[in-house]
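WARN  no MSA supplied for this record, continuing single-sequence
INFO  ligand: 6-O-phosphono-beta-D-fructofuranose
INFO  echoing inputs
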Amino acid sequence: MRVGILTGGGDCPGLNAVIRAIVRKGELVYNDELIGFLDAWDGVRERRTMKLDVSSLRGMLPRGGTLLGTRRGSPYDHEHGLEEVQATFRDMALDALIVIGGNGSLSVACNLHRDLGLPIVGVPKTIDNDVVGTDVTFGFNTAVQIATDAIDRLHTTAESHDRVMVVEVMGRHSGWIATHAGIAGGATAILIPEQPFDIDEVCALLRGRHERGRYASIVVVAEGAEPKDGTMAGRDKVYDQFGHVRLGGMAETIAHAIEERTGFETRMVLLGHIQRGGTPTAFDRVLSTRYGVAAIDAVHMEAWGQMVALRAGEVLPIPLSETVGKTRPVDMHLYHEVAEVFFG
Ligand code: F6P
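INFO  complex generated
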């Protein structure tokens, strides 16, 4: 078969490991010809490609980023986008396309399959871990590890200076990274988009620690966290050209509010894209490899309009329509019954 591969949306550690696994099994087991599309859907529309084979992927397993390049955006944003995608399939005699992406790219994949009947298989990717239908996305574990390492380092400087450190992690709509890194890093409070926070309650936790003689604290904030109505000024939302809300900076607002209300010296750290960069953890390398192998198997099962998902330890295809238009919130049981036990 002639099989195309693209990576879409924000990059994420493990993308190259997925591509490597698809190519390895595709070439050596199925005798497939693998073609990489550059820069996500733009490469499909403009027919910008690179040949992918086992030898060209040597050394890619531990490399972060994506060798194919990635963009946000969709063929639906272009006047002739759908015709261009259809023409690429026809003229390049493509038998299948594997789309490795997050919620945005997977919904484009689902719609193209629905509207044009294209033979597409998806692979769920995002450090945010917010794709519905799979127990975990690759890249999440690496982001949590990076955030935890940062929190560990912040503890020692916070303790030396008797300071509160407010650490902002990624997570536009869900608090997965914040909750996991906050538990792993021993946070005093974890603020997530799923649970609007009351700044006075956060300050009360910090005062309580001071009364017990603990002068250093770490507050972990997901970038999408919002205050409860009427408790603190929110922020103006800024959107990128694709209509995604661009966040970042909530930690600064919170740090000022804490210092103002408690008088405790407070600093903030915004981890930003450091969480998406660099080498994937061993867990993500294994998960990415499993997803890649399952994706090329799904192509040969002709599981069109489906994505590979991890469910109770097994990787298997599920309909893309189950995931489209939804965001997977953090496990609130984990938040309330485990994380909150250690607040304060
Ligand atoms: O890919 C998801 C994500 O990392 C979000 O956590 C974050 O809000 C967003 O991407 C940042 O996007 P960009 O790289 O386009 O600024």
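The chain is about 40% helix and 20% strand.
INFO  checksum written, moving to next record
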